[in-house]
Amino acid sequence: MSGPLLLAAPLLLLLVGGAGVGGFLLARRVPAGRLPLPVAAARRRGTALALAALAVAGALLLVGTSLPQDSLRRTQLVAVTPLAAAAAHAVVLLLGELTWPRPRQRVRSARLAVRSVRADAPRGLLLACAASVAVALLACLAGTLLADGTGRSITWAAADGVVASTRGPFPGAFYAGPVAAGVLVVALLTAALLVRVPHRPSAAGADAATDGTLRRAAAHRVLRVSTAATAGTAAALLVLGGLAARGLGVSWAVGGTWHTDGPGALWAAAGTGTALAGALLGAAALAVLLVPAGGVRA
Amino acid sequence: MSELRVIVDAASAVPVYEQLRRQVTTLTTTGALAAGDRLPAARTLAADLGLALGTVQRAYRELEAEGTVVSRRRTGTVVARAASVEEDVRWAAEGFVERALSSGLTPEQALDVVRGALAVRASSPPGRAR
Question: Which residue is closest to A103 within chain B, CA to CA?
C-alpha cells in the first residue's frame, strides 16, 4: 500500500506545482496581439513544439512504466524509461529546431551578432544537466564495480566465508549498462539541440532581446527535461544502491543469543547517506521540471 | 556591435556574396566595426539570411583575401584592421548624404555623384587636385 502512495505523492505534488506554475505563466504572458506577427508566430511554434515533445515523452513514460513486471528484461526497461522519454522529447524539439522556417522574402537582413551555446543556454540549468549526467555515470560505474556476479545485487561474505549476505535490486552492470547508454544518448541529443539553437534562423522582426529570449526558452525546454530525467534516474540508482548496501549483514541465534555480522557500521552509514542523497536528488529532479523559461516581453 | 545589420537583396544583379563583402567593408571603413570585433559564424549568418553556407563563406574568404578580416580557429572571423577615417571626413559624408537625399536623389544617385567626383579627381593632373 505504501509503495503506490510513495510513487503517487511526488507525482501529485508535481501536477499541482505544474498547474500553479503554468497558471502563473499564463497570467503573465504577453498577449500575442501586442507582439510583432513573426515574433508571436515564433512563440506559438515554440509552445506547440514543447507541448508535442511533452506529450510524446509522457506517453512513452506511461507505456514504459505500466508494463507488467513479469521478467527481468521488463525491469531493465523500466529503469531506462525516463531516459527514453527524455530522448524522445529531445528528438521532437531537435526536429522542430532543424525545420525552423528560413527567410524567403526578397530583401533580408541579419544582425552581425555572435551567438553561442554559452550565451543562449541558461547557465544554471546547463551546469545542473552536466552535473546530473556526471552523477548518473558515476553511480553506474560504482554500481558495476560493487555488484556481485549477477549484476543485479550486492553480496557481502564474512572473512571465513561461512556466512554471506546478498541484497538487491542493486544497480550493477545489469541495470547500469542500459542506464549509462541511455544517459549518453540523452546527453548527446541535448548537446545537439543546444548547438543547433544559436545557428537556427532568427525570427523575422525580433529585436536582439526577443530573439535571445526565444533561443533561451528553446534551450531551457530541453535542458529542463533532460536534467530531470538524468537526475531522477541517478536518484533511483542511489536510493536502490544505498538501501541494498545498508541492508547487508546477517543475524543468527545460537543457544538463544543473537549474533550479527556484516560489513560494519561505516558501511551501513555510507549506504544510508547514499540513499538519502538519492532521495534529495529525486526531489530536486522533480523541482527542475517546474522551473519556467523566461517569457517574451512586449 | 550587436545592432549592426547587413541587408541583402536576393533579386539584385549584384551577387549576394558581393553585397555582403561590400557592407562589411563599409562598416569597417566607417569605424562601425573595429579591429578585433567578431563577425557571426558563416553558418549563423547564412541561416539568418536564408542563404547557402557557401555564399557567406565566399564573402568571408574575399574579405580575408583583401585583409579586412582574419579567420582564427578559436575565435572565428575577426575584423583585422581598424578604420582610419577622420571624424571630419565622416561628418562631411553624413552631411552630403543628408543634403543629397533631401534634394530628392536616391541613394544610388547620391553614390553616382560621389563616383563622378572621384572620377574627375582621378582624371585631373596632380597639381590641380585642389
Answer: B50
pLDDT by residue, tens only, chain A of 298 residues: 455 666 677 778 878 888 888 888 777 787 877 777 878 888 888 889 999 999 999 898 888 888 887 788 888 888 899 999 999 999 999 999 999 888 888 999 999 988 888 888 899 999 999 999 999 999 999 999 999 989 999 999 888 877 888 998 999 999 999 999 999 999 999 999 999 999 999 887 788 888 888 899 999 999 999 999 999 999 999 999 999 999 998 888 888 888 888 888 899 999 999 999 999 999 999 999 888 887 666 5
Domain positions in chain A are 13-98+115-288
Q: Where are the alpha helices (DSSP H) in chain A?
A: 2-28, 37-66, 72-98, 117-120, 123-146, 173-196, 208-246, 265-288
C-alpha to C-alpha distance for A132 and A236, rounded to whole angstroms: 12
CA distance A289 to A278: 17
Sequence-distant (6+) residues with CB within 8 A of A230 are A83, A86, A129, A132, A133, A136, A183, A186, A187
Instruction: Name the minimum distance, in Å, from the CA of A271 to any CA of chain B.
Output: 46
**C-alpha cell recorded at residue A125:** 540549468
- pTM, entire model: 0.82
A contacts of B8 (beta carbons < 8 Å): 107-109
Q: Complex ipTM, two decimals? A: 0.72
Is B34 in the A-facing interface, judged by CB distances under 8 Å?
no
